[in-house]
Amino acid sequence: MRAKKSPTLHQQIINDIEGYILSGAWPPGHRIANELDLAEQYNCSRMTVNKALSQLANANLIERRKKSGSFVTQPQAQSAVLEIHDIKLEVQSLGLPYEYHRLGRSTRKSTASDMKSLELSESADILEVTGKHLAGPRVFCREERLINLSVVPEARDEDFIDIAPGPWLTSRVPWTTAEHMIKSIGANAHYARALDIAEGTACLVIERRTWSHNGPVTHVRLTYPGDRHALVARFTPTDPTGKASGF
């Protein structure tokens, strides 16, 4: 049996720094020791350290600023505007551990606000579920969701502790239409506490309504700290020649 090779110093530096970042021990904005100090710590050349830091920067784990040093970056997930995306997959795409924590669950008759959010024509039983999605030790997204129990009655018996409502609904209810509304807000005291950010921090809010053949299914409000998520849209010109398109 061939003995397992020990990592090179270059790879050891990468492994160590990556481990500190992905575990949350070094949060975004953490300043990393300079090249000379790292070279002394690992008893290697400055070139070896530079190569390792460059590789970490290419992986978007750190940011190298001229004359300032190297800092841990804030990983940012991307999702398509025209898709119903899975937050768990977004987090895992960043190489971070994912968790979902349910914060609240209640059923009630729909209020006027609920009816507006779900576009209900008449009152119905509503399930409200709030939760937070974690990327490593940090809050990645806060979820506030309404589910129309007249269309999805089986949701009444689901506690949504072991699974978030989004993937649960996707696996059970064929949807026919979805609507996204995207906006930015400055975090008020409520969202600052919920997302563990400073008041006034820019946040990205995605509100989505989804319908099935049987009527309105759900309305969800997803609130992200602005530096943790991006939306991407890819589209083609309506004129196949592209002549009518703007640049």
Structure description:
This protein has 2 domains: 9-72, Orthogonal Bundle (Arc Repressor Mutant, subunit A); 77-232, Chorismate lyase (3-Layer(aba) Sandwich), CATH 3.40.1410.10. Helix content is 26%, strand content 34%. It is built from 7 helices and 11 strands. It has helices at 9-22, 35-42, 46-58, 87-93, 112-118, 165-172, 189-195, and strands at 31-32, 62-65, 69-72, 77-80, 98-109, 125-135, 138-148, 177-186, 202-212, 215-225, 229-232. The strands form 3 sheets. Strands 5-6-7-10-9-8 form a 6-stranded antiparallel beta sheet. It has a 3-stranded antiparallel beta sheet with strand order 1-3-2, covered by helices on one side. Strands 4-11 form a two-stranded parallel ribbon. 23% of the residues are buried.
Helix content: 25-40%
CATH level 3 topology of the largest domain: Chorismate lyase
User: Tell me, what's the shape?
Assistant: elongated
The secondary-structure class comes to: alpha+beta
Question: How large is the count of helical segments?
Answer: 7
